[in-house]
């Protein structure tokens, strides 16, 4: 499979959707490249978010290729970066592109609603921010997979272990 093109600028919503598609297809390294584009082209305030997600994807890549120790280390590093929540202190985590549409369709409205907290402020619950990303679920997934990767002699199935970036509804 050819590599993803580099330097593609996407909205946060497009980034999450494309990365999820690649993860589901068992191509976590390609998903890593999508997240890498987001951290390089996005606001500096969100760099830790996108880098953390990229580390999870490349950790899954290593675990799937049989590098259990390296995969576990990257999964934990990505989980730690997501847990720092540094983007939350400097950014509302809102997808401004979703709000810029003059006539939002149902998907845009749902995405904007999932990005904002229950009070509409953009500050979501500890599990789901920003851009509807299930941060808490991903941290749990990464730590559990890291533990299994270290203790199991077999490589993990990348598609079978693909995380749900936005929880159960994606």
Descriptive overview:
InterPro entries: DUF309, TTHA0068_sf. Residues 66-97 have a biased composition (Basic and acidic residues). By secondary structure, the protein is mostly helical. The protein has one domain: Hyaluronidase domain-like (Orthogonal Bundle), CATH 1.10.3450. It contains eight helices and no strands. Helix 3 packs antiparallel against helix 4 (68-84) and helix 4 runs antiparallel to helix 8 (135-151). The radius of gyration is 15 Å and the shape is globular. The two termini are 24 Å apart.
Q: What is the string of SSEs from the N terminus onward? A: HHHHHHHH
CATH first level: which class?
Mainly Alpha
- Beta strands, count: 0
Mean pLDDT: 80
Number of helices: 8
Report how far the terminal alpha carbons are from each other: 24 Å
CATH fold-level assignment: Hyaluronidase domain-like
Helix content: 55-70%
| Rg calculated over all Cα atoms | 15 Å
Taken from the alpha-carbon principal axes, the silhouette is globular
Q: Which ranges are low-confidence, i.e. pLDDT below 50, for 5 or more consecutive residues?
A: 91-128
Largest sheet: none
Percent in strands:
under 5%
Structural class: mainly alpha
CATH architecture: Orthogonal Bundle
The tally of domains stands at 1
